[in-house]
Design a protein that fits this description.
By secondary structure, this protein is mainly beta. The protein is globular. 6% of the residues lie in helices and 52% in strands. It has a 15-stranded antiparallel beta sheet that branches.
Length: 288
Protein backbone atom coordinates (compact mmCIF):
# COMPACT_ATOMS: atom_id res chain seq x y z
CA UNK A 1 0.00 0.00 0.00
CA UNK A 2 1.61 3.19 -1.21
CA UNK A 3 2.18 6.12 1.14
CA UNK A 4 1.46 9.68 0.05
CA UNK A 5 0.44 12.98 1.59
CA UNK A 6 -3.06 12.54 2.98
CA UNK A 7 -5.64 15.29 3.18
CA UNK A 8 -8.64 14.56 5.35
CA UNK A 9 -12.03 16.14 4.96
CA UNK A 10 -13.45 17.82 8.09
CA UNK A 11 -16.26 15.25 7.89
CA UNK A 12 -13.66 12.55 8.56
CA UNK A 13 -13.99 12.91 12.31
CA UNK A 14 -12.24 10.65 14.73
CA UNK A 15 -15.66 10.05 16.27
CA UNK A 16 -16.94 8.33 13.13
CA UNK A 17 -13.71 6.40 12.66
CA UNK A 18 -13.47 5.12 16.21
CA UNK A 19 -17.19 4.31 16.27
CA UNK A 20 -16.92 2.18 13.16
CA UNK A 21 -13.68 0.62 14.32
CA UNK A 22 -15.30 -0.40 17.57
CA UNK A 23 -18.25 -1.98 15.91
CA UNK A 24 -16.05 -5.04 15.86
CA UNK A 25 -17.39 -5.21 19.39
CA UNK A 26 -20.61 -6.58 17.98
CA UNK A 27 -19.12 -9.94 17.03
CA UNK A 28 -21.41 -12.97 17.00
CA UNK A 29 -24.08 -11.58 19.36
CA UNK A 30 -26.98 -14.01 19.27
CA UNK A 31 -29.43 -13.39 22.11
CA UNK A 32 -31.23 -10.87 24.35
CA UNK A 33 -31.32 -12.47 27.82
CA UNK A 34 -33.45 -11.00 30.58
CA UNK A 35 -31.26 -8.87 32.80
CA UNK A 36 -30.14 -9.80 36.28
CA UNK A 37 -26.73 -10.06 37.87
CA UNK A 38 -26.63 -13.79 37.17
CA UNK A 39 -28.25 -13.75 33.74
CA UNK A 40 -25.99 -10.97 32.48
CA UNK A 41 -22.92 -13.11 33.11
CA UNK A 42 -21.41 -15.51 30.61
CA UNK A 43 -18.62 -18.09 30.55
CA UNK A 44 -15.44 -16.67 29.04
CA UNK A 45 -13.91 -19.16 26.60
CA UNK A 46 -12.13 -16.74 24.23
CA UNK A 47 -9.54 -14.59 26.04
CA UNK A 48 -7.36 -14.30 29.13
CA UNK A 49 -5.54 -11.56 31.00
CA UNK A 50 -2.53 -10.33 29.04
CA UNK A 51 -3.98 -10.41 25.52
CA UNK A 52 -2.63 -7.67 23.21
CA UNK A 53 -3.73 -7.01 19.61
CA UNK A 54 -2.11 -4.51 17.20
CA UNK A 55 -3.45 -3.13 13.89
CA UNK A 56 -2.52 -0.91 10.93
CA UNK A 57 -5.15 1.58 9.73
CA UNK A 58 -5.53 2.52 6.05
CA UNK A 59 -7.68 5.15 4.33
CA UNK A 60 -8.76 5.17 0.70
CA UNK A 61 -7.82 8.54 -0.74
CA UNK A 62 -8.50 9.19 -4.44
CA UNK A 63 -8.42 5.46 -5.25
CA UNK A 64 -5.14 4.90 -3.39
CA UNK A 65 -4.89 3.02 -0.08
CA UNK A 66 -2.80 5.04 2.38
CA UNK A 67 -1.39 3.85 5.70
CA UNK A 68 -2.70 6.48 8.06
CA UNK A 69 -2.29 5.22 11.62
CA UNK A 70 -2.41 2.35 14.08
CA UNK A 71 -4.63 0.85 16.75
CA UNK A 72 -4.04 -1.42 19.74
CA UNK A 73 -6.27 -3.36 22.12
CA UNK A 74 -5.29 -4.82 25.49
CA UNK A 75 -7.10 -6.88 28.13
CA UNK A 76 -5.80 -7.40 31.68
CA UNK A 77 -7.31 -8.61 34.94
CA UNK A 78 -7.70 -5.61 37.28
CA UNK A 79 -10.20 -4.45 39.91
CA UNK A 80 -13.35 -2.30 39.79
CA UNK A 81 -15.02 -1.06 42.97
CA UNK A 82 -12.81 -3.44 44.91
CA UNK A 83 -13.73 -6.57 42.96
CA UNK A 84 -11.78 -8.48 40.25
CA UNK A 85 -12.68 -7.30 36.77
CA UNK A 86 -11.29 -7.36 33.25
CA UNK A 87 -10.02 -4.01 31.98
CA UNK A 88 -9.97 -3.61 28.20
CA UNK A 89 -8.75 -0.56 26.30
CA UNK A 90 -8.68 0.32 22.61
CA UNK A 91 -6.52 3.17 21.33
CA UNK A 92 -6.27 4.63 17.82
CA UNK A 93 -3.60 7.04 16.65
CA UNK A 94 -3.04 8.83 13.35
CA UNK A 95 0.49 9.05 11.94
CA UNK A 96 2.40 12.26 11.16
CA UNK A 97 0.80 12.62 7.74
CA UNK A 98 -2.66 12.58 9.33
CA UNK A 99 -1.62 14.90 12.18
CA UNK A 100 -0.65 17.57 9.64
CA UNK A 101 -4.30 17.79 8.64
CA UNK A 102 -6.30 16.35 11.51
CA UNK A 103 -5.34 15.08 14.98
CA UNK A 104 -6.60 11.56 15.59
CA UNK A 105 -6.31 10.40 19.21
CA UNK A 106 -9.01 8.19 20.72
CA UNK A 107 -9.21 5.82 23.67
CA UNK A 108 -12.00 3.47 24.69
CA UNK A 109 -12.02 1.75 28.06
CA UNK A 110 -14.33 -0.73 29.74
CA UNK A 111 -14.53 -2.88 32.85
CA UNK A 112 -16.49 -6.14 32.94
CA UNK A 113 -16.87 -8.69 35.73
CA UNK A 114 -15.07 -12.02 35.54
CA UNK A 115 -18.45 -13.28 34.31
CA UNK A 116 -18.38 -10.62 31.52
CA UNK A 117 -21.22 -8.46 32.92
CA UNK A 118 -20.69 -4.78 31.92
CA UNK A 119 -19.59 -2.48 34.76
CA UNK A 120 -18.21 0.71 33.19
CA UNK A 121 -17.52 2.20 29.74
CA UNK A 122 -15.64 5.33 28.67
CA UNK A 123 -14.79 6.83 25.29
CA UNK A 124 -12.50 9.84 25.04
CA UNK A 125 -12.19 11.30 21.52
CA UNK A 126 -10.02 14.12 20.21
CA UNK A 127 -11.15 15.66 16.91
CA UNK A 128 -8.65 18.30 15.92
CA UNK A 129 -8.94 20.83 18.76
CA UNK A 130 -12.21 19.31 20.03
CA UNK A 131 -12.38 16.77 22.85
CA UNK A 132 -15.42 14.98 24.26
CA UNK A 133 -16.17 12.03 26.56
CA UNK A 134 -18.92 9.40 26.72
CA UNK A 135 -19.43 7.29 29.88
CA UNK A 136 -21.83 4.54 30.98
CA UNK A 137 -22.08 3.26 34.58
CA UNK A 138 -23.93 -0.04 35.10
CA UNK A 139 -25.75 -1.35 38.19
CA UNK A 140 -27.88 -4.43 38.75
CA UNK A 141 -30.69 -3.89 41.29
CA UNK A 142 -31.91 -7.49 40.99
CA UNK A 143 -34.50 -6.98 38.27
CA UNK A 144 -33.07 -5.54 35.09
CA UNK A 145 -30.14 -3.18 34.66
CA UNK A 146 -29.78 0.53 35.44
CA UNK A 147 -27.56 2.81 33.34
CA UNK A 148 -26.10 6.15 34.38
CA UNK A 149 -25.08 7.82 31.11
CA UNK A 150 -22.79 10.84 30.90
CA UNK A 151 -21.53 12.97 28.02
CA UNK A 152 -18.92 15.73 28.29
CA UNK A 153 -19.50 17.86 25.21
CA UNK A 154 -16.76 19.66 23.28
CA UNK A 155 -18.26 22.91 24.58
CA UNK A 156 -17.49 21.83 28.15
CA UNK A 157 -21.14 21.20 29.04
CA UNK A 158 -22.13 17.97 30.81
CA UNK A 159 -25.24 15.91 30.13
CA UNK A 160 -26.43 13.14 32.48
CA UNK A 161 -29.36 10.72 32.13
CA UNK A 162 -30.67 7.57 33.82
CA UNK A 163 -31.94 4.63 31.78
CA UNK A 164 -33.36 1.26 32.85
CA UNK A 165 -33.91 -1.93 30.89
CA UNK A 166 -35.37 -5.36 31.59
CA UNK A 167 -32.83 -6.83 29.14
CA UNK A 168 -29.05 -6.92 29.38
CA UNK A 169 -27.48 -3.84 27.78
CA UNK A 170 -23.94 -3.47 26.45
CA UNK A 171 -21.58 -0.87 25.06
CA UNK A 172 -19.25 -1.33 22.10
CA UNK A 173 -16.44 -2.71 24.24
CA UNK A 174 -18.26 -4.99 26.67
CA UNK A 175 -20.27 -6.67 23.91
CA UNK A 176 -17.00 -7.48 22.16
CA UNK A 177 -15.69 -9.29 25.22
CA UNK A 178 -18.88 -11.27 25.74
CA UNK A 179 -19.58 -11.98 22.08
CA UNK A 180 -16.18 -13.55 21.53
CA UNK A 181 -17.37 -16.53 23.58
CA UNK A 182 -20.51 -17.10 21.50
CA UNK A 183 -20.65 -19.78 18.80
CA UNK A 184 -22.05 -19.19 15.28
CA UNK A 185 -22.63 -22.90 14.68
CA UNK A 186 -25.93 -23.40 12.91
CA UNK A 187 -25.97 -19.93 11.34
CA UNK A 188 -26.58 -19.76 7.59
CA UNK A 189 -25.66 -16.94 5.21
CA UNK A 190 -28.04 -14.02 5.61
CA UNK A 191 -28.82 -14.76 9.27
CA UNK A 192 -29.71 -11.45 10.99
CA UNK A 193 -29.78 -10.65 14.72
CA UNK A 194 -30.56 -7.55 16.80
CA UNK A 195 -28.13 -5.85 19.17
CA UNK A 196 -28.76 -3.44 22.13
CA UNK A 197 -25.95 -0.86 22.50
CA UNK A 198 -25.60 2.15 24.85
CA UNK A 199 -23.28 5.16 24.80
CA UNK A 200 -23.11 8.44 26.70
CA UNK A 201 -26.54 9.70 25.66
CA UNK A 202 -28.40 7.03 23.73
CA UNK A 203 -29.40 3.37 23.49
CA UNK A 204 -30.22 1.84 20.12
CA UNK A 205 -30.96 -1.44 18.38
CA UNK A 206 -28.78 -2.28 15.38
CA UNK A 207 -28.54 -5.32 13.09
CA UNK A 208 -25.77 -7.83 12.53
CA UNK A 209 -25.77 -9.92 9.34
CA UNK A 210 -23.75 -13.11 8.90
CA UNK A 211 -22.17 -13.47 5.45
CA UNK A 212 -20.37 -16.80 5.71
CA UNK A 213 -16.67 -17.68 5.79
CA UNK A 214 -13.63 -16.49 3.83
CA UNK A 215 -9.82 -16.43 4.04
CA UNK A 216 -8.10 -13.13 4.95
CA UNK A 217 -4.42 -12.18 4.84
CA UNK A 218 -3.30 -10.01 7.77
CA UNK A 219 -0.46 -7.49 7.87
CA UNK A 220 1.70 -10.10 9.62
CA UNK A 221 1.83 -11.98 6.31
CA UNK A 222 -0.32 -14.86 7.59
CA UNK A 223 -3.70 -16.03 6.32
CA UNK A 224 -6.69 -16.90 8.49
CA UNK A 225 -10.03 -18.62 7.95
CA UNK A 226 -12.57 -16.02 9.07
CA UNK A 227 -16.25 -15.48 9.78
CA UNK A 228 -17.65 -12.48 7.87
CA UNK A 229 -20.24 -10.19 9.47
CA UNK A 230 -21.82 -6.82 8.65
CA UNK A 231 -23.03 -4.23 11.15
CA UNK A 232 -25.99 -2.10 9.99
CA UNK A 233 -27.77 0.98 11.34
CA UNK A 234 -30.77 2.97 10.21
CA UNK A 235 -29.92 6.28 8.61
CA UNK A 236 -31.64 9.38 10.01
CA UNK A 237 -35.33 9.47 9.08
CA UNK A 238 -35.01 6.39 6.85
CA UNK A 239 -36.55 2.93 7.17
CA UNK A 240 -33.74 0.95 5.56
CA UNK A 241 -30.57 -0.18 7.31
CA UNK A 242 -27.18 0.81 5.89
CA UNK A 243 -23.97 -1.24 6.22
CA UNK A 244 -21.52 0.64 8.44
CA UNK A 245 -18.72 -1.88 8.84
CA UNK A 246 -17.85 -5.37 7.60
CA UNK A 247 -15.49 -7.36 9.78
CA UNK A 248 -13.65 -10.66 9.69
CA UNK A 249 -12.89 -12.68 12.85
CA UNK A 250 -10.96 -15.92 13.24
CA UNK A 251 -13.08 -19.03 12.87
CA UNK A 252 -11.78 -20.61 16.08
CA UNK A 253 -12.31 -20.28 19.83
CA UNK A 254 -10.49 -16.91 19.99
CA UNK A 255 -12.66 -14.95 17.50
CA UNK A 256 -9.85 -12.44 17.02
CA UNK A 257 -10.63 -9.59 14.56
CA UNK A 258 -8.26 -9.91 11.59
CA UNK A 259 -9.62 -7.18 9.29
CA UNK A 260 -12.32 -4.49 9.33
CA UNK A 261 -13.77 -2.66 6.32
CA UNK A 262 -15.29 0.66 7.38
CA UNK A 263 -17.62 2.67 5.15
CA UNK A 264 -17.19 6.37 5.94
CA UNK A 265 -18.81 9.49 4.54
CA UNK A 266 -15.63 10.54 2.74
CA UNK A 267 -14.85 7.07 1.38
CA UNK A 268 -13.64 3.94 3.13
CA UNK A 269 -11.05 2.68 5.59
CA UNK A 270 -9.56 -0.67 6.59
CA UNK A 271 -7.81 -2.11 9.65
CA UNK A 272 -5.47 -5.12 9.37
CA UNK A 273 -4.03 -7.18 12.22
CA UNK A 274 -0.28 -6.73 12.64
CA UNK A 275 0.36 -8.97 15.63
CA UNK A 276 -1.28 -10.77 18.55
CA UNK A 277 0.07 -12.13 21.80
CA UNK A 278 -1.33 -13.62 24.98
CA UNK A 279 -4.23 -15.34 23.21
CA UNK A 280 -6.03 -17.92 25.33
CA UNK A 281 -6.49 -20.66 22.73
CA UNK A 282 -4.43 -22.01 19.81
CA UNK A 283 -5.07 -20.03 16.62
CA UNK A 284 -6.45 -22.97 14.70
CA UNK A 285 -7.97 -20.68 12.03
CA UNK A 286 -4.52 -19.90 10.60
CA UNK A 287 -4.18 -21.34 7.10
CA UNK A 288 -0.94 -23.27 6.59
Amino acid sequence: MKNLKLKISPSTTSKSIIRKWCLLALLLTAMHPSASTAQCTFKNTAFKSGEFLYYNLYYNWKFVWVKAGSASMSTVLSRYNGKPAYRTSLTTKGNNKVDEMFVLRDTLLCYVSEGLAPLYYRKGAREGKRYYVDEVFYSYPGTGVNLRQHELHASGDNTWKNTSSKECVYDMMSIFLRARSFSPEGWSKGHVIKIPIADGDDMKTALLKYRGKTTIKADNGKKYRCLTLSYMEKEDNKKDYKEIVRFFVTDDDNHIPIRLDMFLRFGSAKAFLVSMKGNKNPVSAQVK
